Amino acid sequence: MVTQHEKVALVTGANRGIGKEIARQLCQRGYAVFMAVRDIPMGRSAAEELCGEGHEAFYLQMDVTDPVSIKHAVGTFSQKADHLDVLINNAGILEDSGDDITKLNTERLERTMKTNVTGPILVIQDFLPYLQKSPSGARIINVSSGAGALHSMSTYAPSYSISKTALNAVTRQFAGALQGQNIAVNCVDPGWVQTDMGGSQASRPVEKGAEPIVWLATEAPLTETGKFWKDRQVISW
Ligand SMILES: NC(=O)c1ccc[n+]([C@@H]2O[C@H](COP(=O)([O-])OP(=O)(O)OC[C@H]3O[C@@H](n4cnc5c(N)ncnc54)[C@H](OP(=O)(O)O)[C@@H]3O)[C@@H](O)[C@H]2O)c1
User: Fold this and answer.
1) 3-state SS assignment for residue 229
2) Distance in angstroms (rounded) separating the CA atoms of residues 229 and 188
3) How many CB atoms lie within 10 A of CB 208?
4) Residue 194 belongs to a domain
5) Sign of CA dihedral 26, 44, 126, 118
6) Is residue 1 part of a domain?
7) Portion of the chain with pLDDT greater than 90, in percent
8) Which of 9, 33, 89, 169 has its CA 20 to 30 A from that of 70?
9) CA–CA dist 180, 123 (Å, integer)
10) Nearest to 139 by CA among 189, 186, 78, 188
11) What average pLDDT does range 58-73 have in this prediction?
């Protein structure tokens, strides 16, 4: 079985926040979108919402901290699609905005690294055979943060910030490893966005947070790889 739409995308953490809006905007651009979520009722409801708007959306159960769950998701995906054009590693946690590195809770650091760094590595590894089958070239986007930029880093949210710097390094590593395979790998800072994570005081509505990510995933030249982006511009690490 194959999807009705030729172009196929997968977004992790797509049941709410920026991920759900990325899924919506990709659907609006003619993609069949797989919404990877860890909570089945929330995922079903998010996918039904997009289907109700006339789009082709599916939910996939996936906890990015659980390698078995990622492999199951690949199995479910393979029953509906034979290739993947766009992979967006969006799922992430921020649990330590008030933490102090001198008293760092390493359990929290490990949990954050598992979700924000190891998770994207495993998801890319397991979906790589499908990305390699993309007829027009594939794009992987890792949703990073300005908090991970070393040039401006200070004391904010140490576990989260360290994890996003590491995610940027993951981006460089995969971009290098996949060079010449027609697969671009980039990371992006969405800015401060009104979601559960960003809070209601954030400067950007979720549509504005998702838009540059979707641009990078669909319109940016495939030759652009291994870079850190914000608002369609390359920014410094
Ligand atoms: N909002 C901002 O201002 C901002 C700024 C810079 C970067 N970002 C980045 O943007 C991305 C999305 O953030 P957001 O603001 O939309 O956050 P959010 O509203 O808190 O949503 C986070 C999403 O990640 C999912 N998730 C967390 N752990 C997961 C796991 N183990 N497996 C699968 N899914 C998991 C959540 O699923 P559940 O519903 O199951 O928890 C949820 O769907 C994150 O990577 C974040 O670091 C956000």
Assistant:
1) strand
2) 5
3) 15
4) yes
5) positive
6) no
7) 97
8) 169
9) 21
10) 186
11) 98
**Taking residues 61-85, what's their average pLDDT?**
98
Q: Provide the number of structural domains found in the chain.
A: 1
* Closest listed residue to residue 14, CA positions, set 222, 213, 215: 213
- Asked whether residue 2 is assigned to any structural domain, the reply reads no
* C-alpha–C-alpha distance, residues 26 and 20, integer Å: 10
Q: Return the residue whose CA atom lies nearest to atom 8 of ligand 1.
A: 145
Average pLDDT over residues 98-115: 94
Supply the CATH number for residue 168's domain. Answer: 3.40.50.720
Domain holding 119, by residue range, is 7-234
192 is a domain residue: yes
Q: Is 160 a catalytic residue?
A: yes
Is the pLDDT score of 36 beyond 60? yes
Span 86-107, average pLDDT:
94
- In angstroms, rounded to a whole number, what is the distance separating the alpha carbons of residues 170 and 142? 9
Give the pLDDT confidence score for residue 184 in this predicted structure. 98
Distance CA 115, CA 136 (A): 30
Distance from Cα 1 to the centre of ligand 1, integer Å: 31
Q: In this model, does residue 2 exceed pLDDT 90?
A: no
Ligand 1 atom nearest to CA at 17: 16
